[in-house]
Amino acid sequence: MSRTLEVTSTNGARLHVEVHGPEDAPPVVLSHGWTCSTAFWAAQIEELARDHRVIAYDQRGHGLSPYSPVCSTDALADDLEAVLAATLAPGERALIVGHSMGGMTIMSASGRPRFREHAAAALLCSTGSGRLTAEARVVPLRAGRVRTWLTGRILGSSLPLGPVTPLAKKILKYATMGPGSAPDLVDACARIVHACPRAARHAWGGVLDRLDLDHGVRQLTVPTAVLHGTADRLTPSSHARMLVAELPNCAGFTELFGVGHMSPVEAPEAVNGRIRELVTLYVTGSIPVRLEEGA
After folding, report:
1. Is residue 206's pLDDT more than 50?
2. From which residue to which does any coiled coil extend (predicted)?
3. Which CATH class name applies to 2-283?
């Protein structure tokens, strides 16, 4: 069972939202990353929707969500809250999963009342809270000002990506995926990324270049698990280690050997398994999850 709806967020931003699976099943909310779309979660939707209510949405300017000139971390939080309000009953709690910019969405929303009302737990996949251009390893140079500057120019580029060619797939694989990624998975990721409108890619790339969400990590008081691939060049292991150390209620760390930044696509069985574990523990299980005071 699947349905789609359009949700209106702040500044009139319209969001494409999909709901898959039985309406009475435990809910899982999926928030994708920069230049991606709901298509990025195909493996999660296919497997989990058999016995979960899987809610996925296109970030503003991505997929079927029209471009909005307002792009900021606050807008990310606004949009997640709008999706939660439109798809969950009052007080209903879900596992909220974020990949890359989707994880940053969770960090940005962590102190919001609606997030705290609906989040039973969270899973942060291949993400970080700041210092993205300084720590990313997509440019094959030593760490320093030159590499940071070049990385920032790449993130904020407004140049068109062009068609999905063998060279384009080779570049994307090097930058975002593990060396052992299957060709069909590389092709799928390339088609998703190249479909992202240039204006959205440029605007959100600038937001990532200036990202500072350390305060959001400290406010993320729900049980929060971290998942990371050892071959991740965009958000290398230093980000995952920082999240594990700073989260007030870390619910575990999963490290996937040889997996790059696109962990839900590259290692769907591991990601789906972790999602199922967290749903059992914190959404349908017997562990009580209380609302924080003042939420």
Report:
1. yes
2. none
3. alpha beta
